[in-house]
Write a structure and sequence with these properties.
Elements lengths: L3 E4 L2 E4 L4 E7 L8 E9 L6 E7 L4 E3 L7 E6 L4 E6 L8 E9 L4 E3 L3 E6 L1
Parallel strand pairs: 2-11
Antiparallel strand pairs: 1-3, 3-8, 4-5, 4-9, 5-6, 7-8, 9-10, 9-11
């Protein structure tokens, strides 16, 4: 079972930047993982996909994240990152790391809170 631990959340002013990291319990390029991503859930909202990266390195972004957020993978450190810039109050949410497994199941981290003040 893949275990994920997020870090890097916090309080930032609008226009600022944050970098989220997700440490995996094993090899991030494990054959059991075919994609990883970042999701978020804002107050009173449903959880939504922010960005994802396949095992082959293809990336996908939500429209709200395009041009501001960058997902990346550090294979040597088995870490998934999300660099967020030009943050807006509407980016305030709990951000979750996700791994989609070849067994058709998902692994989730515990979440990290990002608060953007206006």
């Amino acid at each position: 079972q893949v275990q994920l631990v997020e870090s890097g959340g916090g309080l930032v002013q609008a226009g600022g930047s944050l970098r989220l990291s997700c440490a995996t319990s094993g090899n991030i390029l494990s054959v059991s993982i075919y994609a990883m991503g970042w999701y978020r859930q804002g107050p009173g909202k449903q959880r939504e996909l922010v960005a994802s990266i396949t095992r082959g390195g293809s990336t996908t972004y939500a429209d709200s994240a395009k041009g501001r957020f960058t997902i990346s993978r550090d294979n040597a450190k088995n870490t998934l990152n999300l660099q967020m810039t030009s943050l807006k109050p509407e980016d305030t949410a709990v951000y979750y790391c996700n791994a989609k497994l070849v067994t058709s199941s998902d692994a989730w981290g515990q979440g990290t809170l990002v608060t953007v003040s206006s």
